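Attaching the record inline, Q. Sequence:
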Amino acid sequence: MDSEIEEILNMVPAPGWIQYEQLYDSYKYRYDFDVVYENQNNVELKPFFNFRDPKTLYNMTSKIAEHQLRNSLDNLTDSIDMSAYTKEEYFNYWTTKFKKGLSDRYIYLSNIIRYP
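Structure, as predicted:
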């Protein structure tokens, strides 16, 4: 039914928004991990259990993680600057894009389907 399709379409952007918020915080504070990595052997600082592995810390530093985080953010936002978007605008953007993709796909498939 159309109402069910509409309801499902409105759910599509939710996981992307959650991932965007999580990745954006990591991207925003990426340089903080540089400080943690540089001070990992400082005896005055108590290490957090998850960050005892130097490889983990190194992979979280800005020179390693920045590019990966930026690519992930670009994928989640379609390379749009999200600073001007609200959650609702993000949802509207992706819902509209998904509807257009479904419409284009329907038109394509209807042209290649053989009618009896």
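The mean pLDDT is 84. The chain has six helices and no strands.

More tomorrow.
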